[in-house]
Amino acid sequence: MFNYKKSRRINMFLILILxxxxxxxxxxxxxxxxxxxxxxxxxxxIASIIAVLGVMxxxxxxxxxxxxxxxxxxxxxxxxxxxxxxxxxxxxxIEYLNELVYSNDSCEKDKIVTKLFTSRDKIISYLNPxxxxxxxxxxxxxxxxxxxxxxYIMMIKNCNVDEIKNHKRNLIKITRCYFKSEWERAKEExxxxxxxxxxxxxxxxxxxxxxxxxxxxxxx
Length: 220
Known about the structure:
The chain has 220 residues and is mainly alpha-helical. 85% of the residues lie in helices and 0% in strands. α1 (2-33) runs antiparallel to α2, α4 (136-143) runs antiparallel to α6 (161-192) and α6 (161-192) packs across α7.
């Protein structure tokens, strides 16, 4: 697509130049036949070339700006769609945690645990396997036992009400801050029409997450 657009601009530019050359020849011949000064037609031709080049530059800049805006909107929409999907998985996970706590039937609990782990795996599959402890993704993965699976398994199997409630409260707190930060980042980039590079975007996201996370802790 890039080569096609570049080739198209070159072709338009060549057509313009050839047209101006043809027009120049006609004007010069016309003035030459009339034995008038060539200064006026040459000045007119130069002014026309400058004006047309200015218009072409404006059109090219507008096309680039519109293309950049469209790309930004697509990326922003993809982020929002991703947030909606993973939020749905988290809601399902929390729902199964509640069912597990209040279920008294051992057979039913086994079914709930299966559903719980399915939801957990779906959430994990949509996150980056971060190794940096400062990453918001790391906090969610850690909460879901990604880095300490044995401890997580024991909590679910023992079905300790206090532990599960604390686990649920911690997950809600982390994901609230996570989604709020992600939404703010997508909104800012979408309105500005500017997609930051990966390093800048990640830095902005982490800063917002830490801000909301610290604020949430103060409210507890």
